Amino acid sequence: MSAEAKAAPIPTSRADHVIFIIVTLLYWSTLYVYVPILPPFMKSSGYADVLIGIVLGSYGFTQMLIRFPLGLASDKLHKRKPFLMLGMISGALSCVLFMIPGSWLWPLAGRMMSGVCASAWVAFTVLYAAYFAAGEATKAMSNISFMTVSGQLIGMTLSGWLAGAYDWNAAFIAGIGIGAAGLLLTFAVKEPREGVAREPISLTHLREVVRTPSLQRVSTLSILAHCVLFITMFGFTPLKATSLGASSSQLTLIVIAFMVPHAIASLLSGRLIAPKFGNRAVISAGFALSGIFTVAIAYSPSLGWLAVTQALNGFAQGLHLPLLLGLAIQPFASSKRATAMGFYQAIYSIGMFAGPFLAGFINEAYGRDYGFWLGGLFALAALVCMFVWRRRDHARQTA
Where do the TM regions start and end (predicted)? Predict the structure, then answer.
């Protein structure tokens, strides 16, 4: 291995790593500290499911519009810290907007602002990767993926506890405080004055990247996967829990039931399960199981059964999401991977938008349980796509 491959672009101490880890945990916590209580909060304010679906979907809609441009701007400036700060500021501001009473437009503005916060994530990954040598890229991404799930779990666990111990606004106030603390700590994050360069997102490469069949397929599957995710735990599952009589503290347990198996599956999928059974088999199993357990949510007669569906659904969705992320950039040379990832992240935001948006209309027209059936149909659509592509590939190989 060359000296360049052994050396990290940014020399760091253990303290630098600790600071970055804390900032990342605060970032995801401020973004997710109200996610489980947002649908029940809006329902308690008298909003219909269709409006709740529009608000939930606006998170993905914002990312569809600005994720790619923010990545371009970050690469052009070679600066990542300003975008870390943008994430913290927009995360805290989203919580402020949720607290303004009087109109559903304020929660809509808050959720769109949280989409701005989420769009800043690419800057975190690029900066953290620069703390490691080129040969340790997999280790860096594994670490930051675990930080992501940990920060989400911290925020979502706090959410129900705060709402139960105090009131709905307590979670939003906590989000403001967490965002403000993260912003202050961001000043201590290590980044050289000249910034961090990488192979940039390229509009020149974009046309070639978008035309790559494997990326088109993986992006389609990821859209469908995020439709399911944002209909279930990040969408209407908390409303199902409250309809079964869940208190705020019990809502926290439902969140944990989903997130812990989800994190475990995310860690095991690429390291142990996929190498043994193959990517296609594991992704197919993930979609099949998530479809079954999403529909099962509709038929949960009690909170105990709902928790079981969440544990199984969390594990199932954790099987395919990390694999799709890796497959998105796998066929590309390093010079095109940033462009492929930028496109992939922007395109799967369609699922974050379409899933809850459509489910909100379905819920309003036919009842909330039918929204979970819609989630199951999205998972089935992914399986159908995989079957059709496999048949097509086989026919091409035997022709």
Answer: 18-38, 50-70, 82-106, 112-132, 144-164, 170-189, 221-239, 251-269, 281-299, 305-329, 341-358, 370-389
